[in-house]
Write a structure and sequence with these properties.
This protein is mostly helical. The protein has helices at 2-8, 11-27, 33-43, 48-70, 76-80, 83-106, 109-129, 143-164, 169-180, 184-206, 214-217, 219-238, 245-264. Helix 8 packs antiparallel against helix 9 (169-180).
Length: 267
């Protein structure tokens, strides 16, 4: 554990590892948050809840920065013309984020590791089978059924996002495409509009617990990870499409699978 604490104090290791994770996420148009959580646990030696809170704080910086970055490709007026999709999902995700964070705080540490491992496996499966799904341009449901499905999906995504400290884009994007029939480019920006308030909600719930002190205790580490993550996401975005998805997505899913196994076995 002393070795891991010393690694946290190594600026190059912190920024460099965060940048690599950011590049991985940027290559598929995401923030790499799912990959960062196992890094915080296994490499830097943070306990499960501390790692989730740190991951959430770093994710907030990345997501807040990503919104203006995408404004050039998806203007704000286009984004707000789909306010109904945003509100529909937020109606469930805000509640899910609050409840999920409350559950996470009360969990025993050993059970938390296992839940994180299972959710990482879920994300790995989604990477392989649901990333960039075919979009016929037609919503899966209409009317009241769509409303109920949106709230239900939002709630589940909010819980998962709270448990992993992630933005939830890997779940939100396919949900928006399949449930509401929006194109993937717009879904990427809409997911950020849903993610930010959802993350703030779970962040607010975590702030009520004494574990929230981990942010103040690791302020320098947090800033270095955030800086490295932003750099990595930017570089990964520039490299987007360089590696074929047929190779990249199974590789990233394999990384998550290995991470899940290691987290499950975490002492």
């Amino acid at each position: 554990m002393l070795v891991k604490v010393s690694i946290r104090q190594n600026r190059l290791a912190t920024i460099g590892s965060a940048a690599v994770i950011g590049v991985l996420g940027g290559l598929i148009g995401l923030g790499g948050v799912e990959f960062r959580l196992p890094l915080l646990i296994k490499t830097f030696g943070f306990a499960a809840l501390d790692a989730v809170i740190l991951n959430k704080a770093i994710s907030l910086v990345v997501v807040a920065s990503a919104l203006p970055f995408r404004a050039g490709s998806v203007p704000l007026d286009v984004l707000m013309s789909h306010w109904d999709v945003i509100l529909n999902l937020l109606a469930g995700s805000l509640l899910g984020a609050w409840i999920g964070a409350g559950w996470a705080i009360r969990l025993k540490t050993e059970n938390f590791y296992k839940i994180i491992a299972i959710l990482l496996l879920l994300i790995a499966g989604i990477l392989v089978f649901s990333h960039h799904p075919v979009n016929p341009g037609l919503p899966l449901f209409n009317g009241a059924l769509q409303l109920i499905a949106g709230i239900t999906a939002g709630f589940a995504i909010g819980v998962v996002a709270a448990f992993l400290g992630v933005a939830g884009g890997e779940l939100l994007i396919p949900t928006m495409i399949l449930l509401f029939g929006v194109d993937i480019k717009l879904a990427g920006s809409l997911s950020l509009a849903v993610s930010l308030p959802t993350m703030l909600t779970s962040f607010g719930r975590y702030s009520m617990d004494q574990s929230f002190a981990v942010l103040g205790q690791n302020r320098r580490f947090l800033l270095q990870m955030a800086a490295g993550s932003l750099l990595g996401v930017f570089l990964g975005g520039r490299l987007l499409g360089v590696i074929p998805e047929g190779v990249l997505l199974p590789l990233l899913a394999l990384i998550l699978l290995i991470s899940a196994i290691k987290v499950w076995r975490h002492p």
